[in-house]
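Lab notebook, bench 4. The sequencing result for the construct came back, and we need a structural model before the next group meeting so we can plan mutations. Quick request posted to the team channel:

Model the 3D structure of this chain.
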Amino acid sequence: MSTSGMMERVAETSVMKRMLVATFFGLVMGGICATAAFSGGILKFTPVALVWVLLNRTVMGTVIGISGLRLHWAWNGILIGLLVGSLFAYYLFMNVSGPLPAINAAVNGIYGLIIEFFTTIVFKQPRLDFLVRHEPRDCRGLRTS
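Done. Here's the predicted structure in token form:
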């Protein structure tokens, strides 16, 4: 196996590890969020609500794990948290009255920041922009030089 082939395999492994770690922490944050929401009486417990909260945070973690945005890690987590969380918060805006939709919109950025912190800083998973080598490639992804 050539050196470039070995480097690509290492980069692929690092990307997969980062994605799995971030997805795991998204699931953990979903569990924390659901526990706080249900025990605090903020959200009425139903299986659908539980799955919705867990899915929201898990997808958030996955997107953070595969994000290649060239931002500081903290801003990356906040931005991805707000973007992914807003898709799920739309359900709250349509179905729940009161301050919960606005609170959820603000808290999404915080959960994204926490997921990114544990992934990048605590578990030292390198971000994708550090793994991607910038080589000229054609439309099929093959090196041109």
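The chain has a mean pLDDT of 85.
Will bring this to the meeting.
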